[in-house]
Amino acid sequence: MKKLFFIILLLSAIVLLSPRFIGGIVETEYQSALNKLNDNPTITIKSTTFTRHWYGGKIVTEMTVLHQHEEIGAFNVVIEDDISFGPIVFTDEGVKFALSYSKYKLNFIDLVIEEEIEDFIKNKIHLSTLLTFSKDIITHITIDEVNKEVDGNNIISAKAVGKFILENDSRLYGDFNWAGLSATTADGSFAIENIKFSLEQTLIAGSYYQGNAITTGDFDFSISAINAKNTSNNQALLLNNLLIKAKSSVNNNLLAIKMNYSVDELASAGQQLNHANLAVALNGLNITVIQEINTLLTELSSADEDVFNIENMNKFSILTEKLLADDPVIEIEDFSVQTPEGKIESSMRIIVDKKRFNTANFMSIMAATSATANGKAPMEFFDKLGLTPMVEHYVEQGFIIKKDNKLSVNLNFVQGKLKINGHIIPLW
Question: Could you tell me the pLDDT band of residue 270, with boundaries at 50, 70 and 90?
Fold first, then answer.
């Protein structure tokens, strides 16, 4: 009985006393994260106040964020962080064992936004993070449901929930789900259904904090449907199953990226298209050079100068020469859509001859670029659009091949010369 009492007393002492020491660890980790973030050229940490009590505290951080949109420019934001220290913390997701749990409030300074939007950000968007004992960061995002009527217009936005985990500053994964929204106005109705976003990324170069991260892994974004109708309840726009997928991988220090955009059904203005697809592949990208390009672009986005001045163009030329050393290739593997009249399909491959590129003249890349492309389409599709005379004109010129009511085009661009079905087209 005495042993049990001693164990209970010891555990109680640990629970009661450890938050004081954990608070010091959390403050150090927090400051380390801010220092990393401050190295991002688009972010400047102006001040941080860390008020630490026994079981928790408050952190107030003011930072300047440089926005690339010229009408917004730089703006200041104050982040208020109410923090609880572990080892036991009570969160919106239940009781957790962790170093700390934080809930945030955002206040924009000197940024002119509507009061209603500011109120929405403060009261409807909830951000929290859990700092685990392994120092991973688990972030939860919750956007409350909104049901609002203004001047006879009704908008209903469903609740959205997201969870993202930054593991060891090198692995980022998670997902975000939003059931969508519906709006009814005097002009008709509009609805977006089921938006989902997920990623699984592993850092191979750069930093998530500094904005120059290069990663491998998967990215997925989807919209179940977009539906718009006019006041007569006639279909103005219908989109079903939009999907965007990206996957990046590394082989011999060269990055390969595959991207795919697809839509199952798209109907608008009396036209209906099915199985629209765009598949793009980028191969042979040197990771070190890509990182240098990212760093330069980030620096230029924070600088108040002409991006295309002589000095910057020289920098781009040098980096382009480095990038071309590994013979990168860009391919549009599939650009197609199914129409009621038949399938329209095309593909393209682009390479650049590194021997023809001159760093003293960035525009020499045009003469160094080679591209081949092919396209096919049914004649009936253009008949329906009333474009038959124009198509027949290009058939007569030899720029379009017509066979068995099928149209085809072969394009070749080499050393600044464009050939269409073997016919040279002067470009300058």
Answer: confident
CA angle 98/101/107 to nearest 5° reads: 160
Placement of tokens 């892994």 in the chain: 217
Locate 386 and state its tokens.
């009333």
pLDDT in tens, 371-410: 999 999 999 999 988 899 999 998 988 889 999 889 999 9
d(CA 389, CA 387): 6
Q: Nearest to residue 383, comparing CAs of 326, 427, 339?
A: 339
Which pTM value belongs to this model?
A: 0.84
pLDDT value at residue 301: 65
Q: Are 263 and 239 in contact (CB under 8 A)?
A: yes
Say if residue 378 is preceded by a cis peptide, omega within 30 of 0.
Answer: no
